[in-house]
Amino acid sequence: MTVTLNGKFFEVDAPTEGVTISDFVSRLEIGKAPVLVELNGEAVLVREFESRQITDGDTVEVIRMVAGG
Q: What fold is seen in the domain 2-64?
């Protein structure tokens, strides 16, 4: 499946019919830091990560939230 991730084409080993946002983020191997996700220009609530699907050709923005000083 090919998506645009943070402005770049990204191939992910997933069915073209889609994966949940939760599954997609876990495949990115970015650790357990909380993330913000925008799917095709729409912000997605964390509670929707298990029900919303990312499919072939979608545009996804994933932003890791990091705290510190």
A: Ubiquitin-like (UB roll) (3.10.20)
